[in-house]
Write a structure and sequence with these properties.
Number of helices of chain C: 14
Distance between the termini of chain C: 28 Å
Chains: A alpha/beta (about 650), B alpha/beta (about 140), C alpha/beta (about 300)
Number of domains of chain C: 2
Structural class of chain C: alpha/beta
Radius of gyration of chain C: 19 Å
Strand order of the largest sheet of chain C: 2-1-3-4
Radius of gyration of chain B: 14 Å
CATH topology of the largest domain in chain C: Rossmann fold
CATH architecture of the largest domain in chain C: 3-Layer(aba) Sandwich
Largest sheet of chain B: 4 strands, parallel
Shape of chain B: globular
Helix content of chain C: 40-55%
Number of strands of chain C: 8
Number of domains of chain B: 1
Strand order of the largest sheet of chain B: 2-1-3-4
Oligomer: heterotrimer
Number of helices of chain B: 5
Shape of chain C: globular
Structural class of chain B: alpha/beta
Chain lengths: ~650, ~140, ~300
């Protein structure tokens, strides 16, 4: 018979305020097999832990029940205490008398009675717990990073430089992401591609990093330390090792489509280079905008390339599936802009001179549609009056996005400042609700924009934008002066929100990670575990997890890399031993359990005609146990006997 | 515990977390419910439900993750299938539907948990109080 | 004959008889009947929309309860009545505590189950603009009309959900289907001044005149509305300042049901159209494009 000790936590007044601690401690001490019952104000504290360890030694306990907060909080803490005191860690059970008792009931008598039953349940369970040791599995010491923006690149470099191989999977033809589209970055006004470019090249040259462009993750199987990933690469029509960017193919291509890199402000051919500094430095053939490949409708690009004696283009290329084995996965899928056409009050999509911030960004850029000269999209004239609207379609739970995208106040200040530099006789107006400038140097930058930059900041919202006499009439309000304001603008720039990249939800499903209600990847804990998803082995970096600026993205990327390296640092990994087990004598070989397992951990042994459990694959859900008609399967430390005992513990 | 008593099997990834969240947000519900934390709603053998009813529990709640979000991918689908068959069996035995309920409760749906508990208690109050099997003889 | 239970409201029985008569006549021409509900009373105008609205919602709830006894759908014409009844209906669904107070006070219980529709919704969703186009025997060829929505039909969007609050199109779509050429102008969803005409007539005049001016400068020959108060304000503001109106005289204001009825072949007398209004309609139609694509 096991010698059980019961320890009841007051948790200050969190539990003691609603549950009679003395009563339940007394009752516990009188329960069969309980040799000692003690209480303490804070069992998780040093003295509390010491109390438990001392009692274990003094009373030669075999198992402990800790009646306190939810096991989600401290199951591991108390298992470790048990271990430290010489017990097997699985001889510790938590009775949740806080989250599911003292915090949700107000009648002291009833709450106490219920706490009593909860403790009895845990006593019954721990009495039957086996002594178990964690299962060791080997770790595949390679990482997969999904998304080749600054987050993915930074994480890839960190992991690669520590000596592990990295697969960097990127959906488009080049790594670089959004940062490549920016002109300058706040608050230093560094040229964005100038600081990004060297990192892109470094990633390309690093022997430990393999960049898979035009690729998407199709399937993920396995578990932490042992993922088997299928990555589908679209047909690579242009060989990146042969292509020397001579651009002869572009000259002869007849198909033209809007250029995504320039937010649709310019055109590109079906065969194109994503942008000048693309890495890998090769062209891409976009099958969707090509006149036809099956059957071949044109083929001019290949002809031009072959004429030069190059053989970069293969129009018969096929998609390829790469089967990769990795131990850790980092999701760095980034963001895109909210669809401004949904904000009908601003007229985006109706009036050509209403632009999104990303379009304006491209226009500011030296490599952009107008080589950095700001022009009205409608007639090409230089605008003199530009209105910037912050919080466009954000912080509006009823009609648009409920959250704040964090970076718009800063980039709007930068946009306004740069506009004033380029058009010194122009006037910029910024309609804002608040100014969120919390980073290093950010507040000073905004002040400079207002004072030196001469940008007029109006605290108020814009009700409507409409066109009249070739001007955009912006009707808003200035709450600080209490007046309505009307500005006849040449261009209106909307600071729209950041939303998760297209395909994030699908990727989350594939990775078996979760997303939050806005579609961003969900972190394991919003405060303490922002770099990991709730799924073991999958880490998060960048704006795909939540809107953030570049320094935060880089910091998070290095953090996620460090978590991944943690995982890859040892050749083996410990897994929970609370897995399924078969009593061979009872197994009738019916095979019902095999398809019941979602992880394919069960299989039939053809010679012995019984089922077998692959412990390394078993996640311990117990679905097979409930499906077994012979009772041959059981789940370690959550057996049918234990559950029945817990059901019966409600008596009395 | 006073009647009606409910035994709840809560899956540790979703439903149990949802019930915990009711605690952290201090939402109150009827103290006549006691839970057993299971790894997955797929772990639940119908015989647990029958045992609970024989023990004298007035009602049994099984709660797991929403379809498509099961931490173990498909455990909740198996739970649903078993529950459907169990429901047929219970009806044949004359057990009113209100006594056994299957719900999908996610880790953030503490409101739903509280609503379900309070509803079940209300519905069970209208039925005859359950008695443990031994007491019948 | 498809019959819809119908709530007239006070104005439609007094100063706005032309609205009701033209609505009923055009409904008939489309094979619909607007059947007046029993025991209706004043909706309360804007008072039911205040925050502390238990008392002021007693009236609307009586209307809803009595309508519910006869049907599961209630059709309204006046934008003001529509706004009040639709929102009272929503509150009944969302705020059980207030609803219980109102029900106890009234001693006539409204327990939900009624759908409140505006006549435009009936035309758009139940009849369909294609059917209307086919039924328009005498389309108003190319008549440049400014559709004026005002506020109460569309806002608050979260509760009204009739059309896009900033760029609505239901009136324009209806006007297209009867052959008109609706004019897009910036002020079509801005306030006419509402009850300010009583306490601050200058403010009301300014707001209404802005609407008229904008419509006129974009080529509209007349305005069409769905609210007796909007009509009053738009006409009154023009009367008050004859200098502001152009040499061609004030911009006439008609109800959309009058234009609809005319296109369906109903006589101008039955639609209560004045001579001036009729003249503008006939004249305006001829003076622009002869044939208009009716898609």
């Amino acid at each position: 018979m096991k010698r059980v000790g019961v320890f009841v936590c007051h948790c200050g007044l969190n539990i003691a305020g609603t549950v009679n601690i003395k009563e339940i401690t007394d009752a516990a001490s009188k329960t069969p097999d309980v040799v000692v019952a003690a209480d303490h104000r804070y069992l998780c504290s040093e003295p509390g832990q010491a109390l438990i360890k001392d009692n274990i030694k003094q009373h030669r306990l075999d198992a402990i029940v800790v009646a306190a907060c939810s096991p989600a909080m401290h199951e591991i803490t108390f298992r470790n205490i048990a271990r430290a005191a010489g017990l097997n860690r699985y001889q510790s059970e938590i009775a949740n008398i806080r989250e599911q008792c003292s915090w949700v009931h107000d009648n002291i008598e009833k709450a106490t009675e219920k706490a009593h039953v909860i403790i009895r349940q845990s006593i019954e369970k721990v009495k039957l717990n086996e002594l178990l040791d964690p299962i060791t599995v080997p770790v595949t010491r390679r990482a997969l990073i999904v998304g080749g923006g600054i987050a993915g690149i930074r994480a890839a470099l960190d992991v690669a430089n520590s000596g592990h191989q990295v697969y960097l999977v990127e959906k488009t033809g080049s790594i670089g992401g959004r940062m490549a589209q920016l002109s300058e970055t706040f608050p230093t006004l560094d040229c964005s591609i100038c600081i990004l470019g060297p990192l892109m090249v470094e990633a390309y040259r690093n022997p430990n990093i393999k960049i898979l462009r035009l690729s998407e993750v199709e399937e993920v199987k396995g578990f932490i330390g042992n993922f088997k990933v299928k990555v589908r690469q679209a047909p690579v029509y242009v060989d990146e090792t042969e292509c020397n960017s001579c651009a002869e193919c572009v000259k002869v291509c007849p198909a033209e489509v809007p250029n995504e890199f320039d937010s649709g402000l310019t055109w590109r051919k079906a065969i194109y280079i994503p942008f000048a500094q693309a890495v890998p430095p090769a062209y891409v053939l976009d099958a969707k905008s090509c006149l036809g490949l099956l059957p071949q409708a044109c083929g001019e690009c290949k002809k031009a390339c072959d004429k030069l004696g190059m053989s970069c283009i293969n129009l018969d290329a096929h998609p390829e599936t790469h089967e990769l084995e990795v131990g850790a996965i980092i999701s760095a899928t980034g963001y895109e802009m909210y669809d401004a056409a949904r904000l009908t009050e601003y007229g985006y999509g109706i009036y050509p001179d209403v632009m999104t911030s990303l379009e304006f960004e491209r226009m500011l850029s030296a490599s952009g549609p107008t080589s950095g000269v700001i022009r009205r999209p409608s007639d090409g004239r230089i605008p003199k009056e530009v209105v910037f609207i912050q919080c466009a379609g954000q912080r509006e739970p009823e009609t648009a996005l409920p959250y704040c995208s964090k970076v718009c106040c800063m980039y709007t200040a930068r946009h306004a400042m740069l506009f004033r530099h380029k058009v010194p006789d122009g006037q910029a107006y910024v309609f804002y609700m608040d100014i969120r400038a919390g980073g290093k140097g950010y507040e000073e930058f905004v002040k400079r924009t207002q004072e030196e930059g001469g940008v007029l900041y109006l605290r108020g919202r814009v009700a409507k934008v409409h066109e009249e006499n070739d001007k955009l009439v912006v009707k808003g309000v200035d709450t600080l002066s209490g007046k309505t304001v009307q500005i006849d603008a040449d261009v209106v720039v909307l600071a729209v929100g950041m939303v998760p990249s297209q395909g994030s939800r699908e990727l989350a499903n594939t990775l078996k990670a979760s997303v939050d209600e806005n579609g961003f990847f969900a972190e394991a804990h919003p405060k303490l575990r922002p770099l990991e998803s709730a799924t073991a082995g999958i880490f998060l970096a960048g704006a795909g997890q939540a809107p953030k600026d570049i320094p935060e993205t880089v910091a998070q990327a290095s953090g996620a890399a460090s978590k991944a390296l943690n995982l890859l640092s040892s050749p083996t990994l410990e897994r929970e031993p609370t897995v399924a087990r078969i009593v061979n004598e009872f197994c009738s070989g019916c095979g019902i359990c095999v398809p019941a397992c979602p992880f394919e951990a069960l299989s039939m042994n053809r010679e012995r005609k019984i089922a077998e459990v692959a412990e390394a694959l078993c996640e311990g859900c117990g679905t097979c146990v409930a499906s077994c008609p012979s009772g041959a399967l059981s789940l370690r430390n959550l057996t049918d006997t234990q559950i029945m005992a817990m059901i019966r513990a409600g008596r009395g | 515990m006073s009647q009606p008593r409910i035994l709840a099997f809560l899956c540790r990834w979703c439903a149990y977390a949802g019930a915990d969240l009711a605690g952290t947000t201090r939402k109150h519900y009827d103290p006549n419910l006691i839970s057993i934390r299971v790894t997955c709603s797929g772990r639940i053998d119908p015989s647990f439900v029958l045992e609970a009813l024989e023990e004298g529990y007035d009602g049994v709640l099984i709660a797991g993750c929403h379809p498509g979000t099961c931490h173990y991918i498909s455990g909740n689908y198996k739970a649903l299938r078993r529950f459907t068959l169990l429901r047929k069996l219970l009806r044949q035995m004359g057990v009113p539907d209100e006594r056994v309920r299957l719900e999908w409760i996610s880790a953030s749906e503490s409101d739903k948990f509280v609503t379900v508990v309070n509803e079940m208690v209300e519905n069970l109050r209208k039925l005859e109080p359950a008695m443990p099997v031994e007491q019948h003889t | 004959m498809q019959s819809y239970l119908y709530f007239p409201g006070c104005s439609l029985r007094t100063v706005a008889r032309d609205f009701e008569d033209s609505a009923r006549a055009s409904a008939r021409a489309l094979g619909l009947e607007l059947k007046e509900m029993q025991g209706w009373l004043c909706c309360g105008a804007v008072f039911p929309n205040v925050a502390d609205n238990v008392m002021t919602n007693a009236g609307p709830n009586r209307i809803l309860a009595r309508a519910r006894a006869e049907s599961d759908t209630l059709v309204t014409l006046c934008a003001g009545c529509h706004n009040v009844l639709k929102r009272a209906n929503l509150q009944a669904k969302r705020n059980a505590i207030k609803q219980e107070q109102i029900n106890e006070f009234n001693e006539e219980r409204y327990e939900g189950g009624l759908g409140v529709l505006h006549f435009l919704e009936v035309l758009r969703d139940r009849v369909g603009f294609i059917a209307i186009r086919e039924a328009a025997k005498t389309p108003l060829r190319g008549l440049p009309v400014g559709a004026y929505y005002g506020c109460l039909l569309l806002r608050p969007f979260e509760e009204m959900k009739l059309d896009d609050p900033h760029r609505p199109s239901v009136l324009e779509d209806l006007l297209f289907s009867i052959g008109c050429m609706p004019v897009d102008y910036p002020k079509r969803t801005e306030c006419c001044g509402s009850f300010l005409g009583v306490g601050a007539p200058d403010a009301m005049a300014l707001l209404s005149r802005n609407v008229v001016q904008a419509a006129r400068s974009h080529g509209a020959k007349l305005l069409t509305v769905s609210c007796p108060l909007c009509k009053y304000n738009l006409e009154e503001s023009q009367k008050q300042d004859p200098k502001a109106s152009s040499s061609s005289g004030p911009l006439p204001v008609v109800y959309f049901t009058q234009l609809l009825g005319l296109a369906l072949g109903v006589s101008p007398e039955d639609l209560r159209l004045s001579d001036t209004q009729l003249q503008t309609i006939r004249g305006g139609a001829k003076s622009t494009v002869e044939s208009v694509s009716q898609t």
